[in-house]
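Margin note from the TA: students keep mixing up input and output lines. Inputs are the sequences; the output is the structure of the whole complex. Example:
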Amino acid sequence: MTIKYLLKESDIPKQWYNVAADLPGGVLPPLGPDGKPVNPQALAPVFPMNLIEQEVSTQRWIDIPEEVLKLLLQWRPTPLHRALNLEKALGTPAKIYFKNESVSPAGSHKPNTAVAQAWYNKQFGIQRLCTETGAGQWGSALSFACAQVGLECKVFMVRVSFDQKPYRKFMMEAWGGKCVPSPSTDTAFGRQVLAATPDTPGSLGIAISEAIEAAVSDLSGKTRYSLGSVLNHVMLHQTIIGQEAQKQMEMAGDSPDVVIGCAGGGSNFAGLAFPYVREKIHGKKIDIIPVEPASCPTLTKSPFSYDHGDTAKMTPLLAMHSLGHAFVPEAIHAGGLRYHGMSPLVSQAVMDGLLRPLSIAQLECFEAAVLFARTEGIIPAPETSHAIAAAIREAKKAKEEKKAKTILFNFSGHGLLDLSGYNKFLSGQLVDHELSDDDIAKSRKCMEGFPSPKDVAARLKA
Ligand SMILES: *Cc1c(COP(=O)(O)O)cnc(C)c1O
């Protein structure tokens, strides 16, 4: 029996798939401070124009430039595995497949968009990129990509991770990136936060604010900002994952009944799922599940709203599920899943009834991760363990119902730099956190008075 499905280099997808062309509910535009849709030109100090065009595009297929393909071919196409040992351990009649995005140089799916963004910025004449990073996965992916195309890279890393997880900072430096803890003294916003709360652990929202400020305040015009998730062009770049998986599932003579990915800002989930969302829109029956932590339940517990992407309210208002831009999450180990918002495209697909979001607490996720490591061998990132836990739930359900079914999940990254989380779990030091409805109501207070997506949709129709 085959356990690994490999594509040839020539099988790499040549186009990205843009789900915005197919979402039945349409896509709501970002809004500026005046409550009106943002003019793409207004984003020009933040992003290069070629990426802004992708961000607002509704064209279904977008060609991947030859040189970006060459960068991607360094580790792509990635393997699709059948998790036979895990199936056996669970005694399930279900077939479990996973797409292995941990084989990239940075160890996750993030380089898929990092190399594309770095390349488009370089094309546009940019010399330096600024970004934020939580646990360090995005900062390291972008540092790698900038080294590949010849750009400088500056990373604002959430302070608590900067102190607790130095290894990703070392990776960034090995690739030539510069990494500072956020809040930092390098920006006006960072200094303001430090003055008010000197001991703050920092947050992704604060780090985003600093990175945007650092980009737009460089008067030479040669610095731009880069974001590793949430935005439409990031979801777009990740869709090579799902397109490859479709070919590999075909090689396996199979087709998924269930498609699963963990969701922080939504990009690895969207990357695997959107090509299958397209099949679903065209009538195929597929259960498509984004999985988030119970301590940061954006899709499962927060209504679809307009909110800022960052704490300092520098980004336009985005139509998305959001816990509120001022939300400071629990320090769970899945650092990449602690963002207050969610990709507007993923959020809209939930509103359109195409996805079935799920939240799972961290102990069940670590249990799943350890079972996976002991059966399939690869040690998963704590983020990835959310997808594994959901896949195991589905496989157990199949066993109870005595039903064969095919489950496909995205293995978004390995956990070789997250071993302290495993240590804490295995020595019984981890506990579950669930965000209460009260906490959610409190954290959403900062969004009071923002326009509602419903009103905006009605206004745009009129
Ligand atoms: C960053 C990260 C995530 C979460 O980000 P998404 O944009 O939701 O994919 C998930 N898994 C891994 C391994 C990551 O590095």
